[in-house]
Known about the structure:
- By secondary structure, the chain is mainly alpha-helical.
- The protein folds into 6 domains: about 20-205, P-loop containing nucleotide triphosphate hydrolases (Rossmann fold, 3-Layer(aba) Sandwich); about 210-270, no CATH class; about 270-340, Arc Repressor Mutant, subunit A; about 355-450; about 665-835, Serine Threonine Protein Phosphatase 5, Tetratricopeptide repeat, CATH 1.25.40; about 845-900, Arc Repressor Mutant, subunit A, CATH 1.10.10.
- The protein contains 47 helices and 7 strands.
- The chain starts with 19 loop residues before the first helix and ends with a helix.
- About 55% of the residues are buried.
- The structure holds adenosine-5'-triphosphate and magnesium ion.
- Keywords: ATP-binding, Nucleotide-binding.
- It comes from Solirubrobacter deserti.
- InterPro entries: AAA+_ATPase, AAA_16, P-loop_NTPase, Sig_transdc_resp-reg_C-effctor, Tscrpt_reg_LuxR_C, WH-like_DNA-bd_sf.
Amino acid sequence: MAAIDPVVAPSPAGLLLERERHVEAFTGALEEVAGGAGTTVLIVGEAGVGKSMLLRELTGRAGGRATVLRARGDELEQEFPYGVARQLLEPLLRTLQDVWDGPAELARSVFTPGAEGPSDDPSFARQQGLYWLVVNLAERLGPLVLAVDDAHRADEPSLRFMRFLGHRLDGLPVAQVLASRPLAEIEHRPALADMLEDPLVQTLAVDRLSREATAAFLERAWPEGATLAAVCHELTGGNPLMLRALVTEARGTVDTAAGLRALGVRPIGQRVRRALAGAPAGALELAQAVAVLGDDTPAVEAVAFAGADPIDILLRAGILEEGPRGLRFVHPLVRTSVYRLLSPVERAAAHLRAARTLHARGVSGELVAAHLLHTGPVGEPWAARVLDEAAERALASGAPESAAQLIARALEEPDAGVAERARRLARLGDAQSSAGVSDALGSYERALALTPGAVAITLQYSGALAMAGRTVDAFAVLDGAQLPDDPTIRAALHAAALFTDSSAAREHRDAVAARTPDGPLLAATTAYELAMRNAPVDRVAALAVPVFGGGALPLELSTTMAYGYAVWALILSERFDVARAELDRAVELGRRTGTLVVHALALLLRAGTNLRAGALQAAEADAQQSLALSEHPSWRFGNAAAMQILLAQGRVQEAAAAAARIDAHTVQGVSVVLLAEQARARVLLAQRQPEAALAAAEALGRHAALALFDNPVFLPWRETAALAAAAAGRPERAAALAAEQVALAGAYGVAAEARLVEALVARDAERIEAAAAVDRPLVRARGLLALGRMRRVAGSLTAAREPLREAMELAPAGGAVGLVDEALDEPAAAGARPRRRAGSGALALTAAEARVARLAADGASNREIAQELFVTLKTVEMHLSSAYRKLDISSRAQLASRLD
Ligand SMILES: Nc1ncnc2c1ncn2[C@@H]1O[C@H](COP(=O)(O)OP(=O)(O)OP(=O)(O)O)[C@@H](O)[C@H]1O
Ligand SMILES: [Mg+2]
């Protein structure tokens, strides 16, 4: 058989130049990993610079000390959820039993695609599951190294998992090592981009070889050319792969600098082209077959596909090599070059043939669909079916981005009719809105253009608009669609109309107000409107409470708006128990159906309920989980709630940071903007800038009046303004604002807080004491703290003790309170400066510490606590030991008595 010129000669065995620093850094990291300080290392560098070689070296060195698991990102499979995670873990899972303990169970479906997913939110649940699987494996096997080469081609869900794991490695003997091209060179890979900027990730930049290293390379690879090192370096820039290619060509043909320059460095692609052009018949076809079928294709399959068998030639030419699972290219760049030798038309045809063959053989739908993503329309019904099914599986496994790609491809196939096409487009919208892609709205619009007035799609579309903060448009869509006149639709319209200041919206609101609401959703939105118009709270409650009696209020994307306001009507009428019971159900529902939006929204509403009920720690836990579920930056509702909770706990800096994340310009007339303004005003007050706080609160008041949000409990801007005026030394203004708030809140029927604020700005101890005598833990704790502080500042230390002690007792249920009111403190009198939050005692526990301590006191093990709170074991230990310190105890047994 005729031979062809090798594309790149093998490099001298064992020659790794100029990577001492990298090896040292990794060896250091590995020692710490063995001690439990896990880490993520990201090897970054341009194509051919030596990332894969370095990764092999590092993992080879780890071999004796850790179990090394390997995977590689693959071009063909990058749209397939958890491909890389499977490559990493599957080999171990085949041999080990009993590693599915605890929440690891949630990851089982990752390894049996098509199986029923967990009854939890898919993406979050699977990340949790995989995390616990890794924990279990590390417990069984000791230190682990998870090595992923070509991470820039890895599937997004796997990368998301590695990012997730990266934040939970403290205390876990696990190192993740990924090799990737630099950010500028990679296509849309958000999780990887995050990791590249993550301070917890250790980046190892791989640079080209220096002049000296180039010389050292030549000494081994081409001793006769040793004197040409300078030119070689100049020509290749020190890129080792280019150097290898240059040496391959120059060896034995040139021996002068001029000759070398004339030869030049031809890109790998050109070398591949030339080699294959001169190759015997069949070589090109076989190489292309492997390029299409993917690395690790069994030789028989590749040969059958190509109809040619010149394997040896390609092996000797340094194009293919034989791996443990089949044929593969010697380097990804070689594969890319061969693949590019196919014209787009040929490529599509080759993938289509692959898809057909595999489909006929009954191979897994994922692989068939992977090929279909690279073909044009097939025109046969099976293709759309395979794509639809793969998309549903991707959705069910929490990979909406992949699902969106697959559905978009299915849309290129002929469809059974307009209805099917519209259904697919709407499904595309669902996948895109789950993925947080802004195109979602466009997809719904296209669906509606095909089937104008389709009820379900219109409702979904308006729901997506509302969740994107475009409530005004949501109303316009519903209003313009001429939907049938049924209670659900009227409720959706009414919910949207509440935020819209147009004559159509007003008309609609008036029409609803004129009759008795039919159906629970409409009753609920009506209740909310009553609350916002400051109707008496009992009327609001009388309408809102029965709505939830049957426990069957529909909750899906299309009704989220109406639902949200129904719950708000409960919260604003202080029916916290009813709201909590309903929201426990909704959180469960969100989990079970895996609908991200529903799950995140239900958690958020529960956070709001807990916040107003004074259970700040529970509120914070819910808000954090909600934010963790929805990574979408537009999750402004989540940020708004987090901000209020942080403020109520006196964590001003963090609240200010959360407020800054809400971009008012992108949200239309939504309550979130007003809540953010409210929080900003309070941040200013806590930062002791009373004049600015007053101005901000009064501006908010004007906005609220315009937007039909002037419920004194929902937006207590007058309280903030009163406190600010008092702190700014304007007592009359303060008193007037506080009195106005008391009058409004009194008319509404929820005035405890307003009365306290009135007493606070009057700086009247007796009235404060009276106002604090209420059954609202937050109000009471806030009043008692102020009272204690007043007495202390006045020098009556003994009299101060009792209210402060009681405030502390109330605080574990509420967290820290009162920082905002500190702005009212008299300037430090007689050296008695207002004290910050005490450094010890139950009051001093942070929300997280208190949550962990509470569970520990109830008898949960550290592991159980970690599982329940979705944190790492290390975090639990940390919180517990700091709780012990603050509570001044040394054992778990003492916890219960100190917390109660
Ligand atoms: N430090 C080094 N010393 C000597 N030779 C090296 C070194 N680094 C890389 N090489 C040579 O260069 C070749 C290309 O390196 P490698 O495949 O690791 O590049 P890469 O960065 O992974 O490229 P890609 O981005 O395409 O995956 C290797 O096969 C090896 O022969
Ligand atoms: Mg590589």
